[in-house]
Amino acid sequence: MSNIPFTLHIQSEYQDMLSILIPIYNQDVRPLVYTLAKQCTKLKINYQILCFDDGSNEKFKEKNKELASKININYTELPENMGRSKIRNWLGKAGYFEYLLFLDGDSMVKSKDFIKKYIDALPTEVVLYGGRKYVSKKPSNQKKILHWKYGTKREALSAGKRNKDPYLNFQSNNFVIPEKVFRRIIFNEKMEGYGYEDLLYALELKKKNITILHINNPVIHEGLETNVTFIKKTENAILNLATLYKSGAMNATRLIKSYKWLNNYGLTDTFEWLYNKFEKKISTNIRSSQPSISLFNIWKLHEFIQKLKSP
Length: 311
Fold this sequence. Notes:
By secondary structure, the protein is of the alpha/beta class. It has helices at about 30-45, 60-65, 85-95, 115-120, 145-155, 160, 180-185, 195-205, 225-245, 255-265, 270-285, 295-310, and strands at about 20-25, 45-55, 75, 100-105, 105-110, 125-130, 130-135, 175-180, 210-215, 220.
């Protein structure tokens, strides 16, 4: 296991090429890494795969340590948990090729041409977002239905749909960015916990006139959370959003638009009265094996209103 990020790289017809950057937190990333390495080798491109462990449990560290002995791969265990934004910044600074491919550790690559699709889009001055999918089959664990259902309906969008609002639909799970752009625009490390660091980063790109181009090159999101955990993470995300909204840093999400609509028509108190009347049924439903995404969105709007009231 190495302490300093480095990598070997094979010679090819390219002067420079791809750094693949994978933050790890309690995931066995070996299948993902070996798939990516195989595709890069087949294409005969220069590449490095950097895997930074962000404070995982020992059982995952033991599995992933074998990566440290592989050519073109660097596995590094960080001394403490840094969080979603800071670890991406560390990875981005450690990557030394011309293009950076960020992938979440709970991703699965199904397409045999995954790397090729990105390579075919290079060279580029824009950010490329490949997308996210979920397995088509409902999870056997009934306690993970909410995350799967929400992700399938709200996140697994085609490139055509995502390109209609490219910044709002950006996520950091699977994107390529020119290294020179990332040097200028990094993730905001003041964001704590889970939620909206992706969108905040997209808005920074927008401010700097950096285009986000969505393409159909998705990875499958394997890290489904239980209903209870997903609700807790969503609550933290809503807190982040409320903080950003109050500071004026963000005002264009679907949740904010719904809140503004209620507020503009003087319906916020009416909405809250109705929500309180059905709160128990809504709370029970979104934690059940048959959650309603409509009720989940109503719960999110209620949470946002409540977080706005907090000092």
